[in-house]
Amino acid sequence: MDRFLTLAPAMLLHKKLILLAILKLVNCNRPTTTIKEITNTYFQICEEIGETPRHRTTISNSIGELTMIGTIEEVSIKNGREASGREIGLDIPSGKTLEEFLDRNCHLVT
After folding, report:
1. What backbone torsions phi and psi does residue 87 show, to the nearest 5 degrees?
2. Which of 25, 26, 44, 99 is least surrounded by CB atoms within 10 angstroms?
3. Could you tell me which residues are beta bridge partners of residue 90?
């Protein structure tokens, strides 16, 4: 956990917002979430703080970068013959402390 609290301040704002979206979704007693849910939550957060959201490709790239540094984990899922996708989960024991830090750092909490 300490490693993530050390990395988070150096992240660019929108990467923090994407991570915050993931944390909000996964902390709702769910082990994973989808790219679509992350994107929708990220757009809501951007609207709340008056930021222009990045494009979906940028969001997907940021999720890949967060996976590479070990903050989140991606799991490929297969639903039937042709449908497939990715589920995203946290790769840390508890994201609540990190979520609170990001809320304060992104000025979502007063």
Report:
1. -110, 145
2. 44
3. 72
